[in-house]
Amino acid sequence: MNTSGFADLTEAGGVVLGLDVAGKDDLLVALTGRAGEISGLPATRILERVREREALGTTGFGQGAAIPHARMAGLDRVLTVVAQLVRPLDYAALDGEPVDIVVLLLSPEGAGADHLKALARISRALRDPSVLGAMRTAPDEETMRSIIGPLMPPGQRAA
What we know:
Elements (H helix, E strand, L loop, with lengths): L14 E5 L4 H16 L3 H14 L3 E3 L2 E2 L2 E4 L6 E11 L9 E10 L3 H15 L2 H9 L3 H8 L11
Parallel strand pairs: 1-5, 3-6, 4-6
Antiparallel strand pairs: 2-3, 5-6
Helix pairs in contact: 1-2
């Protein structure tokens, strides 16, 4: 479905289906908590960086999708956490629509070009209505991974 995708940036544990949160802040707490588990970095530090970025302007770009993102000192790779929400929530998105698909993107502090390339890959995937629609109904992690891009063998990362 999605030829470029970003499944290679989504490690084990990086897909959260049926996330039930009360609002945007609860969402960010949940996603940064999961990112902390995956990366080994303190979730509170990740949350602080993501909130700093959100204060600059919303990362909800439309069609019910958002890409909160931050660069993190101490992170050695680009990684994502993909979430499918139980119900859409107000995210102050650019189009005013509630958000139900969220991809948290974290990159190393000095990963300028890699961060922008990852952001572009995710954005491209989420702008495709067929990808976004399939993400909303993915019943399991394997299906979600097949939707967001080529499935990489465990432990292997794209070059």
